[in-house]
Design brief:
Blueprint: E1 5-14, E2 17-27, E3 32-36, H1 43-49, E4 60-68, E5 71-72, H2 80-86, E6 87-90, H3 102-112, H4 119-132, H5 136-139, H6 152-165, E7 170-174, H7 182-195, E8 200-204, H8 208-214, E9 217-223, E10 230-237, H9 238-243, H10 248-254
Parallel strand pairs: 3-8, 3-9, 6-7, 7-8
Antiparallel strand pairs: 1-2, 1-4, 4-5, 9-10
The structure holds adenosine-5'-triphosphate.
Adenosine-5'-triphosphate binds next to helix 1.
Length: 259
Amino acid sequence: MSKQIDVKDLNIYYGDFLAVQDVSTTIAPRSITALIGPSGCGKSTFLRALNRMHEVIPGAKVKGSVELDGQDMYGRGVDPVLVRRKVGMVFQKPNPFPTMSIKENVLAGVKLNNKRIKKSEAEELVESSLKGANLWNEVKDRLDKPGSGLSGGQQQRLCIARTIAVKPEVVLMDEPCSALDPISTLAVEDLMAELKNDYTIVIVTHNMQQAARVSDKTGFFNIEGTGKPGKLVEYDETSKIFNNPSEKATEDYISGRFG
Ligand SMILES: Nc1ncnc2c1ncn2[C@@H]1O[C@H](COP(=O)(O)OP(=O)(O)OP(=O)(O)O)[C@@H](O)[C@H]1O
């Protein structure tokens, strides 16, 4: 299921504004990559380019390629809806559909993809996705109750269950814990560690301890000044980035000497 991502010469624009310049990197399957860097350096923009969510914004465009196991997601004729099925995304604020039950929330992505499934299959999928998201035991007796009745951390795990129910190959997470309390954050971090057995995971985080705790690889993005494009300065083993980075800019950022 899990696939390698090869990013080649990726330039990401909002209209004429070049927001992220010339990123080339390889993200291994069954790993967690954390993207860190100062505000506005293009972390979220880069993340959204990995599943073609970027181009939803009017005037936004991308040059270069993003390959999943060698297949260019930006190739001619590739359907962005299919790309987003293969490369799922979890957002900063847990966003379960408020009027839907827990069960319906888990199945929402599958139904959006126009997949018809039998009742028994749907039940199995709800159970396996909620188990995969470490939420089953907490909600198995109230699957027909609204998803909005869960705690913030439970809601975020519900959103993760919804994402994995469509059986993606990659899971992108944009600051998935920033709206959560420390206990829920730990639950989601534990979950990430389990999910990496099956998926390639890329997260954006402002929390450097979190990057150090959960990720195998870390990418440091930086920006030279307002209006300048963000660049991937360094991408390496997380222990190397945090203990012995190759670039001075990375070291300055890690040690809090930035800006
Ligand atoms: N919808 C948009 N339209 C135009 N410019 C945008 C849009 N979204 C982001 N940008 C610009 O692109 C650049 C990168 O923004 P992005 O949100 O990717 O940075 P970030 O590193 O994720 O920041 P933060 O850590 O604050 O979330 C910034 O200059 C930002 O102002």
